[in-house]
Design goal:
The chain has 420 residues and is an alpha+beta fold. It is built from twelve helices and eight strands. It has three domains: 91 residues, Butyryl-Coa Dehydrogenase, subunit A, domain 1; 119 residues, Beta Barrel (Butyryl-CoA Dehydrogenase, subunit A, domain 2), CATH 2.40.110.10; 132 residues, Butyryl-CoA Dehydrogenase, subunit A, domain 3, CATH 1.20.140. Helices cover 48% and strands 11% of the residues. A hairpin with an 8-residue loop joins strand 6 and strand 7. Helix 7 packs parallel to helix 10 and helix 8 packs antiparallel against helix 9.
């Protein structure tokens, strides 16, 4: 795409933005100032230029990030949109987006509790009993308990409905009509469990009625990782750190009160979690607009040193910046629709494709600007933030449901195209 056409498109986006009502109320502006002041005073110095906190995919970094979660929780900043009884401030969706903007602006640490607070918590609010909410939400918000996601299996990655891990009634019967007195026994294997090497609890799907149709007969369970019969095997990433794990279940006993939602109806519960993962919760636009801002700064630096070389990457830089801004505007539009009583349905799949590919485009443009320097490691033996971000962004089109599958969802459920 020619530079002039990209500039024209950017100006069009700006015009759309001016046409939208994106003005914040006085109360929201004051909320932003409160967030900014607290973060400026409390974000760990390691995250502000003296080197980031140790990676949360190491035992030491995991604990350091949990300590940060506790610091936020004590000041009631860890889950601002939650009700006060669970540690939140009871503010709205717009305030949460404001908080996220300030959080990324302050270069605060990555949220080690994100699987819990961004994925499981919305599902608990929708499907959990009051007892389950009181039991699990406060410890999730404080970082006392970190959750991992137990969905994918060796033969069921993107095909979530193809899982084989099973749950049987303790008495040996299956299905929702069996006696509930004895709880459940879990057997099977999960893989690619994010934070699984260090997490305390797992939320996952298990097949409770093997005779049911593929998307039926599944149940959503909450399982402690230290339960007898649970075996955790860390999986090393490209950088050697163990951000993932495979988890084995051998006759693991789970009581009835650790079923989330209705027995045999776990697919609908899981789709609510997936909607959070692909929709508004997991990836706030601030993540991308902040990265795009750093990309622009890098472009200016490189343009001063070698304007000809920078010019060759200019189109990619402009596209990445425009897409990050477009994602922000789309998110605010979606949030407005939700506040007006709407919901995020299969359109979340479009969202997921867009944020994952925008993330990758930002880092690809940065590496193109850096050239051979992108491959250099720092004195601490770790890759630069741009290279590290690129390696993580490569996974974006895969996790939360591969983009190929998401495009199928968009084609069938959003566009109404026939299945082939």
């Amino acid at each position: 795409m020619e530079w002039d056409s990209i500039v024209a498109e950017y100006l069009a986006v700006c015009q759309i933005r001016r046409a939208m009502d994106l003005l914040f109320t006085d109360a929201q502006d004051e909320f932003r100032h409160q967030v900014r002041r607290w973060l400026e005073a409390n974000v760990p110095s390691e995250a502000r230029g003296t080197g980031p906190l140790r990676s949360l995919d190491t035992a030491e970094g995991f604990e350091a990030h949990r300590l940060w979660e506790r610091t936020m929780y004590d000041a009631r900043w860890s889950v601002v949109s939650w009700p006060a009884e669970f540690g939140g401030r009871g503010v709205g969706l717009m305030e949460w987006l404001i908080f996220e903007e300030e959080y990324y602006r302050a270069a605060a640490p990555t949220r080690v509790s994100q699987n819990g607070i961004f994925l499981l918590a919305p599902t608990l609010f929708e499907f959990g009993t009051p007892e389950q909410q009181a039991r699990f939400l406060p410890s999730m918000a404080s970082g006392e308990v970190i959750w991992c996601q137990g969905w994918s299996e060796p033969d069921a990655g993107s095909d979530l409905a193809g899982i084989r891990s099973r749950a049987e009634r303790a008495g040996g019967s299956a299905g929702a009509d069996a006696s509930a007195s004895g709880g459940w026994v879990l057997n099977g294997q999960k893989t690619w469990c994010s934070r699984g090497a260090f997490a305390h609890w797992l939320f996952g799907l298990f097949r409770t009625d093997p005779a049911a149709q593929k998307h039926r007969g599944l149940t959503y369970f909450l399982v402690p990782m230290d339960a007898p019969g649970v075996t955790v095997r860390p999986i090393a990433q490209l950088d050697g750190e163990t951000g993932f794990a495979e988890v084995f279940f051998e006759d693991v006993s789970v009581p009835e009160n650790q079923v989330l939602g209705t027995v045999d109806q776990g697919w609908s519960v899981a789709m609510a979690t997936a909607g959070s993962e692909r929709g508004l919760s997991l990836r706030s636009p601030a993540r991308y607009t902040e990265a795009a801002g750093r990309l622009l700064s890098l472009y200016r630096q490189r343009a001063e040193r070698d304007p000809v070389a920078a010019r060759r990457v200019a189109d990619a830089v402009a596209r990445a910046v425009i897409d990050a801004e477009a994602y922000k505007l789309h998110t605010y539009w979606t949030a407005t629709r939700v506040l007006d009583g709407g919901s995020v349905g299969p359109e979340a799949s479009m969202n997921k494709v867009f944020w994952s590919e925008t993330d990758l485009a930002i880092y690809e443009a940065a590496l193109a600007l850096l050239g051979e320097e992108a491959e250099l490691f720092g004195a601490d033996g770790h890759p630069s933030s741009w290279l590290d971000g690129f390696l993580f962004a490569l996974a974006g089109p895969i996790y939360a449901g591969t983009n190929e599958i998401q495009r199928n969802v968009v084609a069938e459920r959003v566009l109404g195209l026939p299945r082939v």
